[in-house]
Design a protein that fits this description.
- This protein is an all-beta fold.
- The protein is built from no helices and 22 strands.
- A three-stranded antiparallel β-sheet has the order 1-2-3, with no helix packed on it. Strands 4-5-8 form a three-stranded antiparallel β-sheet, with no helix packed on it. A three-stranded antiparallel β-sheet has the order 13-14-15, with no helix packed on it.
- β16 and β17 form a beta hairpin.
- It starts with a strand and ends with a strand.
- The mean pLDDT is 88.
């Protein structure tokens, strides 16, 4: 078993997050940007040949780190690291989550959107690799999951089972859903696109949200004062305030003609 972390930042080559033909999804914290997607992985390798068997992905979108890995006599794996999230999604097929309450702040019972925590938190996560099983949403799986039969009403996306209607908000895609009638292996644009959300720059934006730039997750955000999400006007591009045009990324008032 190999382990490490990956990033969707342009500073990281794509090859650092590709396992043969498999690219795990990036976890994005709420109010993040597409390049601010991160994750940690566990990849099972054949000891004799080094060939990959599968890769599990976990994350919360902020400072996902793994620094050590150990195993027990039963073949289970233990990851040790830290993260900076109030919601941590763990690898595997059944949507296991850890939700952290800080300073008495409530966390919704439902929801998978990672939120940045006030403090960094250490973790020890056990992977029950000693008792591997077929994901619950697969009716048959005789070779690889690529050729498996997914049960009705479910999707099997990036190695995880989802029921119809579940969203991809953990990956910055709150407006995309599992819609098994459209695809059982890919996220599908949901009814929120064009009504309550826009899909711009590879992530979902809630109506009224303004474009912002952030050169680093450790630095502040610079918001546009004229480009915002208006799903009714254009769900796939920024809407510009009336009487303003964008010139070199700057909002400039249009001179009266």
């Amino acid at each position: 078993m190999a382990t490490g972390r990956y990033s969707y930042s342009s500073k990281w080559p794509e090859s650092d997050r590709v396992f043969d033909s498999v690219m795990p999804p990036g976890y994005m914290r709420a109010d993040g940007l597409a390049w601010q997607k991160f994750g940690i992985y566990n990849a099972k390798l054949a000891a004799g040949t080094g060939a990959g068997a599968y890769v599990l992905h976990s994350g919360g979108g902020q400072s996902d780190r793994i620094y050590s890995m150990a195993s027990d006599s039963a073949g289970n794996i233990y990851n040790v690291g830290y993260m900076h999230n109030t919601v941590m999604n763990w690898g595997g097929s059944e949507n296991l989550q850890t939700k952290i309450i800080e300073i008495g702040d409530p966390i919704p019972e439902h929801g998978t959107a990672p939120m940045k925590a006030t403090e960094q938190h250490l973790y020890v996560a056990k992977l029950a690799t000693g008792t591997e099983s077929v994901p619950s949403c697969l009716a048959t799986c005789t070779a690889t999951t690529d050729t498996a039969t997914v049960t009705s009403g479910h999707c099997f996306i990036d190695g995880t089972c989802y029921a119809d209607g579940e969203t991809a908000e953990a990956f910055g895609l709150a407006c995309y859903v599992c819609n098994s009638t459209t695809s059982q292996t890919e996220w599908t644009p949901g009814s929120a696109v064009g009504t309550t959300h826009c899909f711009i720059d590879e992530i979902c934006w809630a109506a009224g949200k303004y474009l912002f730039l952030q050169p680093s997750t450790k630095r502040g955000k610079t918001y546009s004062n004229c480009q915002y999400c208006d799903p009714a006007a254009d769900a796939m591009a920024w809407t510009v305030t009336d009487g303003v045009e964008v010139v070199d990324d700057e909002c400039v008032s249009i001179a009266p003609s």
